[in-house]
Amino acid sequence: MTFELATPHPLAPRLSPAPPTRAFEIVDETPADVPAREALLDAAFGPARFLKTCERLRDGRKPAPGLALVAKDDEGDMLATIRLWPIHAGGRRPALLLGPLAVADHARSLGLGGEMMRASLARARALGHRAVLLVGDEPYYRRFGFERRFTEKLVMPGPVERARFLGLELVAGALDGAKGRVTAGGLGDALHMPRAA
Ligand SMILES: CC(C)(COP(=O)(O)OP(=O)(O)OC[C@H]1O[C@@H](n2cnc3c(N)ncnc32)[C@H](O)[C@@H]1OP(=O)(O)O)[C@@H](O)C(=O)NCCC(=O)NCCS
Q: From the alpha carbon of 107, which atom of ligand 1 is closest?
């Protein structure tokens, strides 16, 4: 997916020619992207990111297949990262946990975060996923359809601000009656390691 970010100068006259654009591409993350992704996340969240309750659902696990995306500019520099993780939203109800989403400081407020959200949610829907949970700022995420009402009876595996615990149905009714503990899904890394003799 290739996009163009319009970056009009704030003082540009209204009848000026079309604004300059910077191309970026949203692609699947590869192992070679990991150092740049981690640097981007460190810059966005700092070391406290590893203490978040969501990390308990991610630690030692892999993102859902096809749902680790990065945005790169036309020189290959990473501008944004987003990943979604397999979880169960109470009982055996499969769902995804979205996050972290981060956009490089110099590329914010140009629409890139929104493009990452829309691209990853479209991919999740196309892959047959039914629902997505996240912990984040409701004023930002509500524009993508995330709502508090879907998580009211769900419990995360640690402290979260309830007002920031949000859900989205990719399939109508997917979170109907969702209640109980949110648990990690998929396979942990440990399960991929060779067994000790
Ligand atoms: C949040 C973030 C991903 C948004 O990326 P972005 O590329 O700047 O987003 P977009 O360009 O699509 O949208 C920008 C709009 O969202 C708003 N916005 C950004 N963060 C917001 C927040 N936390 N709450 C409410 N609105 C927010 C901006 O004010 C801007 O509004 P405007 O269009 O009216 O000017 C980016 O700011 C970021 O990486 N922040 C640090 C990490 C982070 O907080 N990640 C989210 C975890 S909750």
A: 7
From residue 38, give the alpha-carbon distance in Å to each of 63, 100, 104, 122: 15, 11, 12, 24
Quote the ligand 1 centre to 56 CA distance (angstroms).
24
Q: Reduced to 3 states, what is the DSSP secondary structure of residue 96? A: strand
Domain boundaries along the sequence of the chain: 2-8+20-186
Question: What span, in angstroms and rounded, lies between the C-alpha atoms of 172 and 154?
Answer: 18
Q: How confident is the model at residue 4 (pLDDT cuts 50, 70, 90)?
A: low
Nearest residue to 87 via CA among 189, 162, 193, 181: 181
Which of 42, 117, 120, 140 has most ligand 1 atoms within 8 Å of its beta carbon, as the pocket-test mutant?
140
Task: For residue 135, give both structure tokens.
Answer: 């912990």
pLDDT digits (tens, 9 = 90+) for 128-179: 999 999 999 999 999 999 999 999 999 999 999 999 999 999 999 999 999 9
One of 3.40.50.720, 3.40.630.30, 3.40.50.300, 3.90.190.20 is the CATH number of 2-8+20-186, namely: 3.40.630.30
Atom of ligand 1 lying closest to residue 110 CA: 11
